[in-house]
Each structure stands twice: as structure tokens, then as C-alpha cells.
Write a structure and sequence with these properties.
single chain; Tubby Protein, Chain A; 12 strands; twelve-stranded antiparallel barrel; alpha+beta
Length: 197
């Protein structure tokens, strides 16, 4: 099962003139495909991306184990100006929490909240914005997200990124928290870092 793992390699699919993002979710040791994440937008939302910065526009990212499978995790964000709020839902459509971006953050980052709004984790980036650490409220590390070098041509000519998400052993025994942290790793690129198309 996708959420019972401690490590994921997220590989963005390269495409020219794309209006939506697609990501493969792989086992970092074997390269086995575990699932994928895809933005699912309405025609109007795709049209708006031709005229406005995508970080200000609504997005919905669906994580599935296969093309035919039901969603495992869904990320959803509405229109945003200064602060982004990204809600995360489980396979039953129940909200498991949300992320709130930080306005002033060296290297990027956001807070992770439970459905009631209580902050349960923090995601902080390093000064380059390539490595992110997820910690609980006591400062215990829950996981890391590290950008992986994709090769000179890919890095120079596309905005496609690869990320390695590693979660602490304690996280994989809690499917709700695992869903939130996998979503947090994806949200770093899809929601908070992806440049304008």
C-alpha cells in the first residue's frame, strides 16, 4: 500500500507547454512505480493559467496507486494572494489536515495542521530551498524532502524536479500522518515552488 512506506521518489514528468503537472511516485531503491500524482483542473482553471501566475490560482492534485484506482490522497487549494492554504483529504474524502504557507521564510516552508486547525508539524527549507525538514511541535524530526539532481539538460531547460521523501519509522504506522507528510512533500513542488508555466 502506498501509505505504508518510509521513502518515496517523486519524479516530475517532463512535457512541453503543459498546463497541469504529473508526477510518478517510485520506490527509491528499486524504481518500482508505487503510484502517481496528477493535477486535475477544470477547463476554466487551465485557461486561467495562460494569463495568471499558477501559484495564485486554484489547484487540485490527486494521488492514486494506478490510473484506474480511486484516489488515496487529494490536495486542494483555492485562489490565493499572500498565504496559501492547501487542504488534504483521504481516500474517503475526509479532511486529514491542511498546510498554511509562511509569508516570510528563508528557504521556504509551511505549517501542517490537523482538521481542527491545531498546528502539528512544521516544514522548513534550507537556504537553497532544496532540502526540507518536517518536525513535530516538540522539534522531533518526522521526515525530510530533498531535491534530487535530475541532470544538466533537464535542470537547465525544464522546471521538472525530482524529490526524495523520507519519513520517520513512527509515521508509517499512522496512515493519516503519512498521508499528510506525503502530501507535504508533493506540495513543496506542486503548490509552493513550481514556477509559472
Amino acid at each position: 500500500m502506498l501509505l505504508n512506506r518510509n521513502a518515496y521518489l517523486i519524479r516530475e514528468r517532463v512535457a512541453m507547454l503543459k498546463l497541469t503537472d504529473h508526477y510518478d511516485i517510485l520506490d527509491p531503491e528499486t524504481g518500482e512505480e508505487l503510484g502517481f500524482a496528477r493535477e486535475e483542473l477544470t477547463g476554466l482553471e487551465q485557461l486561467l493559467r495562460l494569463f495568471a501566475h499558477k501559484q495564485m490560482l486554484p489547484t487540485k492534485v490527486v494521488i492514486r496507486e494506478s490510473e484506474e484506482a480511486d484516489p488515496v490522497v487529494v490536495l486542494s487549494r483555492g485562489f490565493t494572494f499572500l498565504w496559501s492554504k492547501v487542504s488534504v483529504f483521504d481516500e474517503n474524502g475526509k479532511e486529514v489536515g491542511f498546510f498554511r504557507s509562511k509569508v516570510f521564510s528563508w528557504g521556504g516552508g509551511f505549517t501542517v495542521h490537523d482538521p481542527a486547525g491545531a498546528q502539528i508539524a512544521d516544514v522548513k527549507g534550507d537556504w537553497k530551498g532544496w532540502s526540507f525538514t518536517m518536525t513535530d511541535q516538540r522539534g522531533n524530526q518526522l521526515g525530510q524532502v530533498n531535491k534530487q539532481w535530475a541532470g544538466a539538460l533537464k535542470e537547465l531547460f525544464t522546471s521538472a524536479d525530482n524529490y526524495l521523501i523520507t519519513l520517520d519509522e513512527s509515521v508509517s504506522s499512522n496512515p493519516g500522518l503519512a498521508a499528510l507528510l506525503l502530501a507535504a512533500g508533493l506540495a513543496i513542488d506542486i503548490v509552493f515552488k513550481e514556477p509559472e508555466n
